[in-house]
Amino acid sequence: MGETAHHNHQHPPAHHNHQHPPNPMPPPPVVVPPLGAARGPVYPPTEQLIQMHYCIHSNPSWVQTAVLGFQHYIVMLGTTVMIATALVPRMGGSHGDKARVIQSLLFMSGINTLLQTWFGTRLPTVMGPSFAYIISVLAIINDFSDSTFANEHERFTHTMRAIQGSLIVSSLINIVIGYSNAWGNLTRFFSPIVIVPVVCLVGLGLFARGFPQLGNCVEIGLPMLILLVIGQQYLQHIFPAAGSLLEKFALLVCIGIIWSFAAILTVAGAYNNVREPTKLSCRIDRSFLMSSAPWIKIPYPFQWGTPIFRASHVFGMMGAALVSSAESTGTFYAASRLAGATAPPGHVLSRSIGLQGVGQLLEGIFGAVVGTAAAV
User: Fold this and answer.
1) Bridge partner list, 126
2) Which residues pair with 374 in a beta bridge?
3) Minimum mean pLDDT among 37-41, 308-312, 330-334: which range?
4) What digits encode the pLDDT tens for the residues 162-220?
5) CA–CA distances in Å: residue 100 to residues 52, 95, 322, 329, 366
6) Could you give the CA distance from residue 363 to residue 301 in angstroms, rounded to a whole number?
7) Distance in angstroms (rounded) separating the CA atoms of residues 325 and 183
8) What are the pLDDT digits (tens) for 132-167?
9) Phi and psi based region of residue 307 (left: phi greater than 0; alpha: psi -120 to 50; beta: remaining)
10) How many other C-beta atoms are found inside a 10 Å radius of the C-beta of residue 217?
């Protein structure tokens, strides 16, 4: 009896053993990831910018990739043509020489972009000609302005050989500070107070060179600027169905429209009785680049001749190489932020700057007129 009483005391009544299981908890709400974060980790808004269509973990379709790549090429082509137009005539080069310089710059920009995206930071950046080298190149051009040459083409090739030599030797500074990890150690002191002014100056510095070109032909440049701002910022709200197209490809559409407008003005004779500088800036048939150069031209090493090495030229170009390294570093930080990636660590920045030095070495060998820097 005692055991039975004790047993009944220890176990609950039988009806407690047949309770219904509690109702299951409702599933947690589904969190829709930001657009472009289909693969890879989902970053919070502080890391992944929600208004961006693509991030570092997503890719557009092949058709959009081809069109967007061509649009990037058009943007970089403008900078390349501006640099060649500013430097080649001062060197005594002809229209054909300018076309070959542009081809060399585009070829080396593509090679360096592949190197950076494959082995460098692997960020969505384009390596394009840098304005940081213009002052150093102009100093080399002025050194030969009083020299005597048989013709202008000889002066051009002699100047190009001097530029080649300075690019080759000055590339060593980027290679050394990059692969020795000295640049990565220096980037530990790069706070937002340092990086933001660098990124702003890199972008705003182009306005001083772009707006004078716009003012040379206001009837072409001003409509392009107005149409680009309206098409990219306002028309997507008025026509939501075309919003995605206008947001991504507004620049390409505007270039096509304005170039057609310039062609109509040229054929109609609107610039027949204007000054020669206006004709050069507004007419579509005064660059002579298409007619004076082959359609396909692959640069080869030392195409202008044996490089010329001078200490004064090398030291000036070293300063330009350091400036381009700072430009690229600011661009890498901006690209990582916009792409939803983490900030590049020091060893990655060192590797990319060292690789940029290797690219500058190749540019000197293949005869580019300036070095390259990263651009978004």
Assistant:
1) 375
2) 127
3) 37-41
4) 999 999 999 999 999 999 999 988 888 877 777 778 767 766 766 776 777 777 888 88
5) 37, 9, 27, 30, 11
6) 9
7) 9
8) 899 899 999 999 888 888 899 999 999 999 999 999
9) beta
10) 21
Q: Which amino acid belongs to residue 143?
A: D
Could you tell me the two tokens for 273? 């009785």
Backbone angles phi, psi at 242, to 5 degrees: -100, 10
- What residue type is assigned to position 55 of the chain? C
Higher pLDDT: 222 or 17? It is 222
Task: For the beta carbon of residue 223, count every other beta carbon within 10 angstroms.
Answer: 15
> If you search the block for the tokens 């057609």, which residue do you land on?
260
Q: Report pLDDT digits (tens) over 344-369.
A: 888 999 999 999 999 999 999 999 99
Question: 174 with 360: CB under 8 angstroms?
Answer: yes
State phi, psi for 126 to the nearest 5 degrees.
Answer: -115, 130
Count of CB atoms situated within 10 Å of the CB of 323: 19
In which element (H, E) is residue 373 found? strand 372-375
